[in-house]
């Protein structure tokens, strides 16, 4: 939020020090109490002559492609406002009745391309020699066939805002031609840009920010909401609240006889400009001004466009609304709306409808202020991507007690500056319950901060923020404080909130920063060590670690072609997702990793190897019964156990994806494309880093290819899958052909009790090869297991090095050739011993799979 310093100081009772307090001091005070400051922007960056002018004559130049005007602008009396040099004439004549020529009125010809002004308009003129913000120098120059002696300025050119749709036109009577524009525009002011945290909705207003400064500077605060609101004399308009959850209070005030052409006063327009809001019309500007000052958004209806009673309800299926931005929106049944006899006329708390918009001819205005349910407004704003200034405040909680004050303030401004008449009636439907009292030990802030504050600090600070405070004695005889939060602080609901207020207003800098002593003998757990080791091993193997978006969309499972009863579809749904279409916790790492792969491919990368280590959430088939725990005391052991039981299993997984070339093509020769074998090898890399062995067997599990998918087993326990993705999955997700992936449950791999250092044998190995013929369906890994079991302890390693199919083998058969390495730990192995072990291995393979030696 942008707010001028002059507006803030107006609400602070600084007395004689009002000019001594600088903008930087106010910014530092904001930062000290926890409100972020994005910038401090001084306005006074203009040098040279800058004056008020009146447009006397406009000549339209029609010989050009775009509208160009040559304007004669009156600039006041020569020699006074403009500081023209006056020739010395010696001593004045003492004759009083001598005729004296009146001062000459100076007129400059200025070329301008804007069309939002007419003859007689008051404008701001930068004369030759002036330098505008950004180092833009003004000089007399010939353009479009005329000499332009200056420039008529827009609000952005003067540094007053971002509006550059036309030049700045001042209301009549604001100033006289020739007046110094710096004084009229108050260019000595400064704008502070703040970014309050989302829980402090009250700080999106001058009222809230000034109150925070009053606490930080320990000065009195003048509340602009201290306005006498007269008793209502009937209703302003009939209203019915059907959705009492979405709308707690609804207030209307009616103003008739409004001068539709009445200009917005300059002081109000200036504040709106500096706050970044464009001036539209008096009625709209007044509602925006009250919103900025009080923090209560308002909406103005053209009363003549409202048909029948106003009804606050949820939208019905199929209803649509064209909002003020001329966009037709299809409403959701969760949207809170305001409707009349014709249908929906406003998207509550977010944006009004075009059908009841205030126009240039509106003379009868219905002012509305309401207290809307923050979660409902937040969902509506995100659903329609409509983050209006009103929605920003309502989703952060607006003060329900301000509704009547806000419409009364707006009505009085319309009466004062638009000659409107306030009708006697005021509609005030619904109401809100007062905030409940919070009781805490008076010394709790001291205990939390580890600081002994001065006596009375807790009561004083809670009183400053608006709490009604009472001090008493607790059951144990200790002093306690009972505080009723003010209506604008919906974020205060427990003791910790009150403690935070005391600590931040006293200053976080007063809290000592002491690092706790690290107890000796404690380091990383075995699981943490394994995670780091696995991450390092995959990185050394050429994979790049990424952190994908952790949430998934339901459509992902359709792309994976998972059946409806697949447990991976059973994800937990988020109540408030960051992205509306990704509202489930991931049950597998593959969706996020494949999305990251897609993003890299779209950026021009073709050979990509990624990995991610993270948790997945695996809820049970039956919904868990989550206990509702109180916060006033520590939960009992059985309550904690029930809470732990309700938390779904969240194992740590590791996943990789590869596409393109595993070894790149270069001068050294052709590259090698990544295949399913590389995905399996990545799993072996993870297992080796974990200190365990890993077996593989053929499997059929989507989203992998049914003929190129391996199940990964640690002992006899399945821990994951690896292989090539199914062609239909690759096509659905827009991935390159033959993309491969692996996912493994790292928590399912047992942690070894001990990891002895590897021993290097001093004895030589005996190397033997064996080629076995088996049925083509027999997996090579299973045949290797049979050889390993039959060979016994002397077999140190077995590795497949060749496969062969052909007529010599026979139809439905294939030959698998293995390298066998034999070694004894205590002696040099003889050839006879190694041959006997090989024969035992072949016999085991023959017994299990009918294998025989290839001749």
User: Which band does the percent of strand residues land in?
Assistant: 25-35%
Level-1 CATH class name of the largest domain = Alpha Beta
* Structural class based on helices, strands and sheet pairing: alpha+beta
Rounded to the nearest angstrom, the radius of gyration is 39 Å
Number of helices: 20
Total domains: 6
In CATH terms, what is the architecture of the largest domain?
3-Layer(bba) Sandwich
> Helical proportion?
10-25%
Plain-language structure description:
With 855 residues, this protein is of the alpha+beta class. The protein has six domains: 2-43 and 191-217, Phenylalanyl-tRNA Synthetase, Chain B, domain 1 (2-Layer Sandwich); 50-83 and 103-188, OB fold (Dihydrolipoamide Acetyltransferase, E2P), CATH 2.40.50; 239-430, Phenylalanyl-tRNA Synthetase, Chain B, domain 3; 438-509, Phenylalanyl-tRNA Synthetase, Chain B, domain 1 (2-Layer Sandwich), CATH 3.30.56.10; 526-616 and 651-748, BirA Bifunctional Protein, domain 2 (2-Layer Sandwich), CATH 3.30.930.10; 766-853, Alpha-Beta Plaits (2-Layer Sandwich), CATH 3.30.70. The protein is built from 20 helices and 42 strands. The strands form twelve sheets. A seven-stranded mixed beta sheet has the order 28-31-32-38-37-36-35, with helices on both faces. Strands 3, 4, 5, 6, 11 and 12 form a six-stranded antiparallel beta sheet that branches. Residues 78-104 have low confidence and may be disordered.
Highlighted features:
alpha+beta, six-stranded antiparallel β-sheet, OB fold (Dihydrolipoamide Acetyltransferase, E2P), 855 residues, Phenylalanyl-tRNA Synthetase, Chain B, domain 1, 25% helix, Phenylalanyl-tRNA Synthetase, Chain B, domain 3
């Amino acid at each position: 939020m942008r707010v001028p310093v002059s507006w803030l100081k107006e609400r602070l009772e600084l007395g004689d020090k009002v000019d001594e307090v600088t903008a930087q001091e106010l910014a530092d005070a904001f930062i000290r109490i926890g409100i972020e400051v994005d910038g401090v922007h001084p306005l006074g960056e203009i040098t040279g002559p800058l004056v008020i002018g009146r447009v006397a004559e406009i000549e339209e130049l029609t010989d050009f492609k775009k509208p160009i005007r040559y304007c004669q602008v009156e600039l006041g009396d020569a020699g006074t406002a403009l500081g023209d040099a006056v020739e010395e004439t010696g001593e004045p004549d003492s004759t009083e009745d001598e005729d004296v020529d009146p001062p000459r009125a100076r007129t400059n010809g200025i070329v301008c391309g804007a069309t939002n002004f007419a003859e007689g308009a008051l404008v701001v003129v930068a004369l030759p020699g002036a330098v505008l913000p950004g180092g833009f120098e003004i000089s007399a120059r010939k353009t479009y066939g005329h000499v332009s002696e200056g420039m008529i300025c827009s609000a952005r050119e003067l540094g007053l805002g971002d509006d550059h749709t036309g030049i700045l036109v001042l209301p009549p009577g604001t100033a006289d031609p020739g007046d110094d524009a710096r004084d009229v525009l108050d260019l000595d002011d400064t704008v502070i840009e703040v970014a309050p945290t989302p829980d402090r909705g009250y700080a999106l207003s001058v009222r809230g920010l000034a109150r925070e400064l009053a606490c930080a500077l320990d000065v009195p605060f003048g509340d602009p909401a201290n306005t006498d609101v007269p008793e209502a004399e009937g209703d302003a308009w009939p209203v019915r609240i059907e959705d009492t959850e979405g709308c707690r209070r609804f207030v209307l005030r009616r103003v008739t006889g409004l001068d539709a052409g009445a200009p917005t006063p300059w002081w109000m327009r200036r504040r709106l400009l500096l706050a970044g809001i464009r001036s539209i019309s008096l009625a709209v500007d007044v509602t925006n001004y009250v919103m900025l000052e009080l923090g209560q958004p308002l909406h103005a209806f053209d009363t003549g466009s409202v048909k029948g009673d106003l009804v606050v309800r949820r939208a019905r299926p199929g209803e649509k609304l064209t909002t003020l931005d001329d966009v037709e929106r299809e409403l959701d049944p969760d949207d809170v709306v305001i409707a009349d006899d014709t249908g929906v006329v406003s998207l509550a708390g977010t944006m009004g409808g075009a059908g009841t918009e205030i126009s240039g001819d509106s003379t009868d205005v219905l002012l509305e202020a309401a207290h809307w349910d923050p979660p409902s407004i937040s969902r509506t704003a995100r659903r329609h991507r409509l983050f209006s200034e009103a929605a920003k405040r309502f989703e952060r909680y607006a003060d329900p007690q301000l509704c009547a004050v806000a419409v009364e303030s707006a009505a009085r401004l319309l009466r004062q500056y638009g000659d409107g008449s306030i009708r006697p009636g005021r509609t005030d439907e619904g109401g809100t319950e007062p905030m409940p009292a919070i009781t805490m030990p008076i010394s709790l802030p001291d205990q939390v901060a580890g600081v002994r504050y001065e006596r009375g600090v807790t009561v004083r600070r809670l009183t400053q923020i608006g709490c009604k405070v009472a001090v008493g004695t607790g059951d144990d005889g200790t002093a306690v404080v009972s505080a009723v939060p003010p209506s604008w602080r919906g974020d205060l609901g427990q003791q910790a909130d009150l403690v935070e207020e005391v600590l931040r207003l006293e200053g976080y800098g007063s809290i000592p920063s002491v690092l706790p002593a690290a107890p000796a003998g404690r380091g990383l757990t075995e699981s943490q060590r394994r995670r780091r080791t696995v991450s390092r091993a995959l990185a050394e193997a050429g994979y790049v670690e990424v952190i994908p978006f952790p949430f998934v969309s339901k459509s992902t499972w359709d792309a994976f072609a998972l059946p409806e009863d697949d447990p991976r579809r059973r994800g937990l749904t988020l109540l408030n997702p960051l992205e509306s279409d990704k509202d489930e916790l991931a049950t597998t790492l593959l969706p996020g990793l494949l999305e990251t792969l897609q993003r890299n491919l779209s950026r021009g990368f073709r050979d990509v190897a990624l990995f991610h280590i993270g948790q997945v959430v695996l809820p049970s088939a039956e919904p868990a019964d989550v206990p509702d725990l109180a916060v006033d005391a520590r939960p009992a052991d059985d309550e904690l156990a029930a809470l732990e039981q309700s938390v779904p299993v969240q194992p740590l997984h590791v996943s990789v994806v590869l596409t393109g070339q595993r070894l790149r093509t270069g001068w050294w020769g052709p590259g090698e494309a990544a295949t399913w074998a590389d995905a399996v090898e990545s799993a072996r890399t993870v297992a080796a880093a974990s200190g365990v062995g890993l077996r593989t067997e053929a499997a059929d599990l989507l989203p992998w290819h049914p003929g190129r998918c391996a199940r990964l087993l640690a002992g006899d326990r399945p821990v994951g899958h690896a292989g090539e993705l199914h062609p239909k999955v690759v096509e659905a997700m827009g991935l390159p052909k033959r993309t491969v992936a692996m996912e493994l449950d790292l928590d399912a791999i047992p942690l070894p009790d001990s990891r002895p250092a590897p021993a290097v044998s001093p004895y030589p190995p005996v190397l033997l090869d064996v080629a076995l013929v088996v049925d083509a369906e027999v997996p090579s890994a299973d045949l290797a297991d049979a050889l390993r079991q039959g060979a016994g302890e002397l077999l140190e390693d077995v590795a497949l090095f060749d496969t062969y199919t052909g007529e010599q083998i026979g139809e439905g058969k294939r030959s698998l050739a293995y390298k066998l390495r034999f070694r004894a730990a205590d002696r040099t192995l003889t050839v006879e011993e190694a041959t006997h072990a090989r024969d035992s291995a072949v016999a085991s393979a023959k017994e299990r799979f009918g294998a025989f030696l290839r001749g």
